[in-house]
UniProtKB/TrEMBL annotation:
<feature type="transmembrane region" description="Helical">
    <location>
        <begin position="114"/>
        <end position="135"/>
    </location>
</feature>
<keyword id="KW-0762">Sugar transport</keyword>
<dbReference type="InterPro" id="IPR000515">
    <property type="entry name" value="MetI-like"/>
</dbReference>
<feature type="transmembrane region" description="Helical">
    <location>
        <begin position="12"/>
        <end position="32"/>
    </location>
</feature>
<keyword id="KW-1003">Cell membrane</keyword>
<feature type="transmembrane region" description="Helical">
    <location>
        <begin position="223"/>
        <end position="245"/>
    </location>
</feature>
<feature type="domain" description="ABC transmembrane type-1">
    <location>
        <begin position="77"/>
        <end position="293"/>
    </location>
</feature>
<protein>
    <submittedName>
        <fullName>ABC-type sugar transport system permease subunit</fullName>
    </submittedName>
</protein>
<dbReference type="InterPro" id="IPR035906">
    <property type="entry name" value="MetI-like_sf"/>
</dbReference>
<feature type="transmembrane region" description="Helical">
    <location>
        <begin position="180"/>
        <end position="202"/>
    </location>
</feature>
<dbReference type="InterPro" id="IPR050809">
    <property type="entry name" value="UgpAE/MalFG_permease"/>
</dbReference>
<dbReference type="Pfam" id="PF00528">
    <property type="entry name" value="BPD_transp_1"/>
</dbReference>
<feature type="transmembrane region" description="Helical">
    <location>
        <begin position="265"/>
        <end position="292"/>
    </location>
</feature>
<keyword id="KW-0812">Transmembrane</keyword>
<keyword id="KW-0472">Membrane</keyword>
<keyword id="KW-1133">Transmembrane helix</keyword>
<feature type="transmembrane region" description="Helical">
    <location>
        <begin position="76"/>
        <end position="102"/>
    </location>
</feature>
Amino acid sequence: MNKRLTLKQRNAIVGLTFILPWLIGFLIYYVGSLFLTIQFSLSKVIIGKTGGYTTSFIGISNFKNALLVDPNFNQILVNSIIDILIDIPFIIFFSLFIAILLNQKFKGRAFVRAIFFLPILLTAGAVQSSLQLATQHIMGGASAMMKELTPSSGVNVNYFLGIFQELGLPSVLVDYVTSLVSRIFDIVRASSVQIIIFIAALQSIPNSLYESAKIEGATSYEIFWKITFPMVTPLILANVVYTVVDSFVNSNVVELAFNEAFTNYNYGLSAAMSILSTVAILLILGLITLFISRRTFYYN
């Protein structure tokens, strides 16, 4: 007699089917590269003149060189982590704010949503290179114009920063806002996927919850903090993890490791840098996940 699968078992099979393509790719392509990176980090890699390479085991010398000898790795790693931690709150709340706006009913909503999705397409190699080149030309022209206008107008960014500090705003807050403004284009471009995820989360909230809250006389402020925000907290965790990983992939420390391998041809040191930075990011991810998961609300 055949035993029928339970609902939990059927759901497990469906979930495994969804992740099976990723799992196959992970086992075929990523696992081998991971072990090769570990091997390179513990070895001195010598590239042959006619192709191929040879390795000789040197222990943790590459890790020592990265942490104690290389003049740039520690500073770039710390700066990259600080930039990631600075960007996370703003990207998450900006994405949630835009998602709430785009979830409203108004004319041209599909077009506006497409505009916020465009940065994903614009990060393609050729398009991104063209945009960077155009941005350099625009910034060059803007800098020349600012040099001409500044003496006559007397506009000075430091002047406005001084006003904010005189108003009693903490210097840490002023520096935080200044850092965000200086990277506003990168932050908006990095928020596209998060906006889409938040829109999906908002559309999954039952309308009956909002109707019941309005009948009880709840204000929009109370509805947001008592219904909307708790219901999207599981996706906040997912977006934070995605933001950390995405920011890390595009950080300066990854570029440093890449240049060390393919410019200086020091594959062992590059592998050690990659492992150290990855471990640091995994620790940060673990702490953030532990903190947010304890405050996440799951609606059944």
